[in-house]
Amino acid sequence: QVQLVESGGGLVQPGGSLRLSCAASGNIFKINLMGWYRQGPGAQRELVADITRGGSTNYADSVKGRFTVSRDNAKNIVYLQMNSLKSEDTAVYYCRNTWRGEDYWGQGTQVTVSS
User: Fold this and answer.
1) Of 34, 57, 83, 84, which is most buried by a Cβ count within 10 Å?
2) Residue 99, number of CB atoms within 10 A of its CB
3) Rounded Cα gap, residues 73 and 94, in angstroms
4) pLDDT exceeding 90 applies to what percent of the chain?
5) Helix or strand or coil: residue 28?
6) Is 96 in contact with 4 (CB distance < 8 Å)?
7) Can you give the pLDDT at residue 43?
8) 29: burial class by Cβ within 10 Å (0-12, 13-18, 19+)?
9) 10-33 residue pLDDT tens
10) Closest Cα to residue 102, out of 36, 50, 30, 52?
11) How remote is the C-alpha of 99 from its chain's centroid?
């Protein structure tokens, strides 16, 4: 009912920046709390940041001060600006939408931080 497509991943050197985008489509009335999760090699999926319709944000301690999540409700797009990237940020990043107990996930986009 809600489709999410991530883009913007790639290879970047430590200290560099990337901006990820997540475009939502389908039943736009179910677009609600949106967030970014990541899963690194041999690691569990973890919350990176999320954002409410009203713009309230929440960040993992590991990315606070370096990453910024934002959204454009008119375009149904959520962004993740990633600065000062570290090797430990290497992961597949997934976009998530939650509406009344229903979860929707994107296919993921690979972010690799390496020199």
Assistant:
1) 34
2) 16
3) 19
4) 98
5) helix
6) yes
7) 94
8) exposed
9) 999 999 999 999 999 999 999 999
10) 30
11) 17
